[in-house]
Structure formats: C-alpha cells, structure tokens
Amino acid sequence: MNGTVPESCPPQSESIPPVASVAAAAVTTPNGGANVHIDTTHLMKGLGRRAVSGGLVTAAAQAIKFGLNLGGVVILARLLSPKDFGLVAMAGALMPVLRTFREGGLSTATVQKENITQAQVSNLFWINVAIGGAIALIGSALAPAVAWFYRDDRLTVITVLLSMSFLLSGAAVQHLALLNRQMRFRAVAMIDISSGIAGFLAGILLAWRGFGYWSLVGMQLATTIAEVGLTWAASGWKPHLPRRRSGTRPLVRFGASMTFYIFLRRLVSGTDVILLGRFYGADAVGLYTRASALLLRPLDQVIQPFDTVFVPVLSRLQNDPNRYRETFLQAYGAIALFSFIFAGLLAGVSEPIVLFLLGPAWSEVIPIFAWLTVAALYIPLSYAVMWLLTTQGRSRDLLSMGVVVPLLTVASIAAGLPFGLVGLAISFSLVGLLIRLPIQYFLTGRSGPVSTADLWAVFFRHLPLWGAVAAATWLVQNVSTSQSPLMQLILAGMAGLVVAVTSILCWPPMRQEARFMIDRLQGLIGKRAISSA
After folding, report:
1. Torsion-angle region of residue 116: left (phi > 0), alpha (psi -120 to 50) or beta?
2. Spatial distance between the Cα atoms of 70 and 51, rounded to a whole number of angstroms
3. In degrees, to the nearest 5, what angle opens at C-alpha 469 toward C-alphas 466 and 471?
4. Which helix (H) or strand (E) holds 326?
C-alpha cells in the first residue's frame, strides 16, 4: 500500500517549453475554428467559482462512489472468503505498475500545458492507444511468471483477463484529460459514478451466483468497459491521424518524467502484497488488503475531489505566483482539516468499525487497521504536495521524488515484514509519517511560490486536532464496549465530531479555514439561486 495515491521556480529547461511554431495555433482546429475541447481562455473568468462548483460536484460524486465501495466491501465480505480477495489482490499487484505506462504521464501533460493544439493531443491519443495494447500483451506474457512466483496456477488466467482491460482504457486517456482541462467536472463525476455502479452490480451479481474470485475480476472489467464508453460519449472530441512536427516531443518528455515517478511509486505500492503473498499466502493478503481498503477507499473520497479540481485550477494560475500560493494553501488546509479529523475518528473506533463492516470472522484485521490509521495523517498531504511539481512542470524534482519515495516505502516494508501483518502496518505508517513526509516537504518546498515552512505550518496547525479527536473517540468507545459495534460507532463518532467542531470554533486559524469554505459555498449557492430565478 503506497501512500501517495497521488514541490522556486526550476530551471527553464525543466518546465514544459513553449513550442513557437505552434503557439499561434494553440486554440484552433486545422480549419481555423475555435476548438472548444482545447481552448481554456474562457475558464479564467470566475475561476474561483468554477473551483468551488467543481469541488461540490466531485465531492458529491465521491460520496456516492464511497457508498458503492462501502456497500461492495460489506456485501462481498459476506459472499467471498479472504482467499478470494487474496488471489485477485496478488494478480492485481502487477496492474498498478502496468497502468502507469497506459497514461505515460500524458494526461497530466494535456491538463497542465497552457497552450496545446489539436495535433498534439491527437498524437498523444495514438501514443496512449499503442501503449495500452503493448501493456496488455506484456501483462499476458507475464501471467505464467506470476502464477509461478505465487505457486498458484489460477493466477495465470486472472492476470491475463485483468491485463486485457488496458486494450480499451488507453483509448480514453486523452478524452478524460480534455474533460479535466475544460473543468467539466460534472461530466467526469457522472462517468465515475456510472462506471462504479456498473462494476458494483456486476461484482455482486457474480458473487451471488457463486463465481467466487471471478466476481472480483468481472467487477474490474465491467468498470473499465463502462468508463471507456462513457468517457468517449461525454467528451465528444475526435482525434486526427498522427502528424509530424506538431511539437509533441516536449509533452512526451514531461510525460516521461511523470511516468518515471509514478512507475517507481506504483512498483513499490504492491510490494507489501507481493511479499505477503510469497511468504504468508493468500489468506494473509486477504486480511491485509481488507484493512488497507477500509482506510484508503474513504481517503480517496477526500483526496479525489481536490485533485480533480485543483490540478487544472493551479495549472491555469502558474503565471500568477501570489494567487497560486493562496489557492494552494487554502486547498491544502482543507485537506488537512478533513484528513486529520478522519484519522482521529478511525483511530478510536478500529475494533467496532471492522466488526460492523466486515463481521466477526475478520477480527484479525483489527490491529492491522488500527496501525494503518496513522498513515491517514500523511497520505492525503503527500498526494497534495505533488500538485506543486505537476502544475509547475518541475520534471527534475519529479525524478528526485520518484527515487526517494519508493526507496523509503520498500525500506518500511522490508523492516516490518519479519514481524507479520501488524509489524508491516506499524513500519509502513511510522516511516511514512516521520521520514517520508519531511523529505517530500523539503523537495517540493525548496522552490516555487509555496515554501517548506508553509507546508509544515499547515501540518502542525492541525496536529492537535487529530490528537483531541482520537482521544475522545477512543475514550468513549472503551467505556461503551458492552454495546453493539454499531452503537459503539455512533457514540464514539459523535464524541469525536463534537470535539472536532469545538476545536475548530476555538482555534482561530481553523475557524478561518472553515469560514472560508462556508462563504465560498454560500456564494456559489446564492449565484445559482439568482441564475435560476
């Protein structure tokens, strides 16, 4: 489980350089008409309103998706065994690494580039298609090796089927990137929800019919098929045939730096699963992945709305350092506020939340999940600081981060593995919080509008909030152990939320953050009411 998920101005050569020969055509189609899929000049007017509106839409979509994921966890945990989850997780450990190359960092290049042309995006589209096909072949070729490594022949077919999804998904990378570039967050949200529903229904139906671990494979394939079809329909963009001398090389160079970082990050993100499967078997992998899923899936719902909205927003503000810094720190403070409250709540209710959601048969997950909640303090912050590198086009720092973060993650896994599942969770969480996050803060804040001191100020401002919420939640849970797991969750959760609200009201910086968000939401709602009157 890799917690990213998920950086003063660098040398000019490290940014995506402008392409003089195509700059004049940056927002036009070959026939001279305005390209509505690429032009972003109209977005600068009311950028703040678009950010808040997009945040609302994306947050609502993530809430729905969270409900689907939670429902899937609860239902599938009662229809399938830990071994079923473990088998698919072991085969799936290879998929994030392969998925890195499907995008090739080119979706980020499309969103981040201030001026881009139809020919450039078309070339990137065909590159993504070719990469997707190559990845499907590579994944299928590696399937026998995966089965040999884990000593389980069932993994051969599972790996081949999961790899086939790349044949389709590569064809939707640029369409989705253009939707994000245009800040069409409602369309992106609907795609996310609808494809999630398709996968959810397919998985539940197959599990109910007794297909075992095949239901998890079917769920992933159904989600991918639905996502690709809906993305093409929503985008409406049509690629041209590849063209030479279109200025694509600088975008590919940036994408390569981005890919290198993501590749190494994802390469080690499955290291825990791979080593657990090798030395402890499918049951251990099933227990560990259920614990990490209970933590990471809710965190994704917090991170994704911000990530979807603020990467395009900050990309449009890269030439306005003061506004860039202000916008980032506002978003970063909101992420810290939510994630620290969330981590504090989970730390205090680890036992009842596992028993309620997964059932008594999964009681071995409790101590693993309890220690992984510490990682919730740094995972969202670690993801968000990467915006500083991607939106500023800092490829050199991306390469540095791509080396440091994976090395630290592997070191934490190697240190904890001899001590079993709980030891792995402890090592991963503490190394990430005490070593990895400080290094990320240094690398990302040493240049650019946002400094390392700015990042630490946000962290330490919210740290007491986490401690207060965790203490209150833990105390109430421990005095209500005679109640059912659900009642313990309700009582302890309410106590933690009361402490959180009280802390925000009594602490001026947090109160200002909350007030800022409320004012933005009220302003947005008011404008919508006026426009609909």
Report:
1. beta
2. 27
3. 105
4. helix 321-348
